[in-house]
Design brief:
The structure is a homodimer. By secondary structure, the first copy, chain A, is of the alpha/beta class. The first copy, chain A, has helices spanning 10-24, 37-42, 50-53, 75-87, 99-114, 143-164, 180-189, 197-202, 207-223, 237-240, 242-263, 268-276, 281-288, 292-300, 315-332, 349-352, 358-376, 430-444, 460-463, 468-478; strands at residues 30-33, 45-48, 92-97, 120-125, 168-173, 193-194, 229-234, 342-347, 382-387, 397-402, 407-412, 415-420. A four-stranded mixed sheet of chain A has the order 3-4-9-10, with helices on both faces. A four-stranded parallel sheet of chain A has the order 6-7-5-8, with helices on both faces. Chain A has a two-stranded antiparallel sheet with strand order 1-2. In chain A, α1 packs across α17 and α9 (207-223) packs across α15.
């Protein structure tokens, strides 16, 4: 079952799994569940043979089966999954997904074990966000490809900035809970500014302080005669900013109780007045200071659970607006000469369905093979893993990692629940330390690197290089 | 001199020119003007030797020299250019640019000839928009690379649409005056809908009709159980729509006379009232029907000449808004079941500074060599050209094309002026005919093609394929 957002290489996990199972026993059968966990719950599946898989080998996307974001939590859902596995007499169930999906996998493994069902549940670490990793899981698949697609585009924008000499490009990058994608793209392209959500949270920085920092970078470059630059912004930034986190929490609570009343209001002005009269004074002030467009996005877009749709908020435009206001004030007071041109970008969907890099193609195929071995050996509740990923695939070391070793207790629905934990950017880790050591220089100089398009056929150092994150973390681990 | 917007391969023109000049005479000197035509006018230049050029060979962007959009029109500007060429004792002046820049080149060639200056002026056809071509100029450089970058990303979105099965992606593409980029990307990726500005204009289609067409495509797919798709929108679409063209014209005239009064208005509401009271009734109605954000963009952003900044208008959001309204009405009347998820994208800056494809790298280097031969032979007022571009570079045929053969009279500043004409999409040409023949099928089926990242090192059919536009036009030319 493919679960959650797409990541390049998902199809190769299936291919590796299929080949591994047939090698183990030529009479093996592989079934694919349709539309993610829902397919498992509802028993919607299709048999996968060599002909069905062949056109999808090395291809991006999850379109062979589709995906979905359903969680498997309730007693009824667990029973439905069990019934599906019993009906199909499955020796194994392979869940290809991120933290939520692997929490599903752990829950299912536990449930099946309790009920004496012999279906071995195996997880495969997938997410372009890069936040599913541990000492035993060096990387989730898809991160390599997605960051290289984004880095290609950011490199092009750096080149554009330096050529046109009149734009500051503000680039928001997918990755809501953790800033690994932004950090990796920064290490690959060396932009003038890269904001890291985890650092913002550690230092409790306000939105005004963040905007000040960026505006100061703009001013320092302008003073040196440079009226262009590139700023990277993680999609989830505002959730790391205390007052914005407070605003989102208050809005979610408000919508939970007063959505019907709110939705009856006819005009945008009415809705704003309604909300402002119900927010606490400091949060109300933070709300009032936001640009109109962001205020509207906070009020108009809600997800299926009625919560503010944070991923749809144009954080890059929020920063652009703030920086422009500060620069306008400096222009008035004579502290800033010249113009400020700004352009906003969002890179997300373009990368998560890209064709996998050689690294991700190899890694996912190998993960599929490892998963087939874990299933064949009847190991349940394990995640497929490969170690030594910076080395050649020939020397990768296969292993199974107990899902429980990745879990910790979190407050969910009012009670302590074991979940696979998200791995946030470690501010003491080598990748962030590298950024912290270099960023002063990158802010002033044009230290841009232009990685170009992902290559498949050329020199290994061009085609097979791991991410900077993986290389730095591996070097650190080796000591 | 590099002139206008960046296009991949500009640096290779300089490299080819340099190598060609040195082959002709090892004592040749090459100077590069800084910041586009302004560098020529102000005499700001730098000598270019092998060491200066080496790091820029095969690299994207125009950052070796920078670029600019100044026109060379006035008597003073012409005299200043002449003085620069005389001071540097230039045998030749190579203008790398699009239609405006080559109009500059033609004007300079004529002016130099009249004044007896022996500097030969040679143009090189540059523009990612693809609208500088003729029977003698098969393609402008940069079009190949830019469209392949966009097609990579569009292909990824098609894969994403088909995997997530819940989003319609609306993609606006750079290319304001002509829809070649959108047409080429459509031929490469086979999306569900591709709008072509020239067709909209030919049939005098209103915005409402265009939105209806797209909404009908959404409805037909929804009726077949498919709640996703991809729509390509040329950046310049709204300028081809009669009532929007009328609106933009009236706004430009209004700003020309009443900008000071308008800019003193404090609130968005005041500005809207001011404008609406001054627009003609039908244009005022068209304005009132636009979404708020688009109305604001029309009123807030103006270019250096005080005109509406059409390139900053989020046309994809305009269409999304219209389609959502129609679908909402159908949902109410029970004619549409299910949901509509929409996402907007704009691809432009990412592509114009990309590293050139093998085709553009070869083409631009060869154009530089041709320009060096034209200069060495003292031919002035010519554009460097290569024929037979679909064949291997070994069999390309070099030639010079008189700039005057590309020119026609247009109304500029109130008088008939000879300018290099933009080549719009020909609705009788093979590329558009191919789209027209296939698009019914593409609208319903998932006929998506996923071109993937630009490759440099692999099989020639992957790495060196020309654009579909060039291939179809060449096949048609050969009969």
């Amino acid at each position: 079952v493919l679960s959650g957002g797409q990541a390049p290489g998902g199809h190769n996990v299936i291919a590796g799994l299929f080949d591994g199972l047939l090698q183990f026993d030529p009479c093996s059968e592989l079934h694919g569940f349709l539309g993610g966990p829902r397919g498992l719950i509802e028993g919607k599946e299709r048999p996968l043979d060599a002909g069905a898989i062949a056109p999808y080998r090395h291809m991006g996307g999850f379109d062979l089966l589709g995906s979905g974001r359903d969680k498997i939590e309730s007693v009824e859902q667990l029973a439905a999954c069990r019934a599906t596995c019993e009906r199909l007499r499955l020796d194994g169930l392979v869940v290809i997904g991120g933290d939520d999906s692997n929490t599903n996998a752990a829950t299912l493994a536990e449930h099946f074990r309790e009920r004496g069902l012999s279906t071995a549940v195996v997880g495969v670490p997938k997410t372009i966000d890069g936040d599913l990793k541990s000492d035993e899981i060096e990387a989730s698949f898809g991160f390599d490809t997605a960051t290289k697609v984004y880095a290609e585009l950011i490199g092009n924008l750096c080149r554009d900035a330096r050529s046109a000499r009149k734009y500051w490009h503000f680039v928001r990058l997918m990755g809501r809970s953790a800033s690994h994608v932004t950090l990796e793209c920064a290490l690959q392209t060396q932009p003038n500014v890269a904001l890291i959500g985890e650092e913002v949270e550690r230092h409790g920085r306000t939105l005004a302080e963040i905007i000040d920092d960026v505006a100061q970078a703009v001013r320092r470059r302008a003073a040196a005669g440079t009226s262009y630059g590139v700023v990277l912004v993680p999609e989830g930034l505002i959730e790391f900013v205390p007052e914005m986190r407070g605003l989102i929490d208050e809005l979610n609570r408000l919508f939970a109780t007063a959505a019907a009343e709110f939705d009856r209001l006819a005009t945008a002005d009415d809705r704003e007045r309604f909300v402002r009269s119900r927010l606490s004074p400091p949060v109300g002030r933070a709300f009032a200071e936001l640009p109109e467009r962001i205020r509207q996005q906070l009020l108009l877009d809600r997800d299926a659970h009625g919560n503010v749709l944070v991923s749809q908020i144009d954080t890059e435009l929020l920063l652009i607006d703030g920086v422009r206001r500060r620069v306008a004030a400096w222009q008035k007071s004579g502290e800033f000469h010249g113009k400020l041109g700004t352009l906003g970008h969002f890179f997300g969907y373009e990368g998560r369905c890209a064709q996998p890099t050689n690294f991700d193609a190899d890694y996912t195929y190998a993960l599929g093979r490892v998963a087939s071995r874990l299933v064949a050996a009847g190991h349940t509740g394990y995640m497929a893993s490969l170690r030594g990923l910076v080395d050649s695939p020939r020397s990768w070391r296969a292993q199974g990692v107990p899902l429980t070793s990745l879990m910790r207790l979190e407050q969910r629905h009012g009670r302590q629940t074991p979940v696979v934990a998200k791995a946030l950017v470690c501010l003491d880790g080598a990748p962030f330390r590298h950024l912290a050591a270099e960023r002063e220089r990158w802010a002033i100089e044009d230290a841009y690197v232009y990685p170009g398009a992902i290559q498949y056929f050329g020199p290994p150092e061009v085609c097979n290089a791991p991410t900077r994150t993986l290389a730095l973390e591996s070097a650190e681990r080796e000591g």
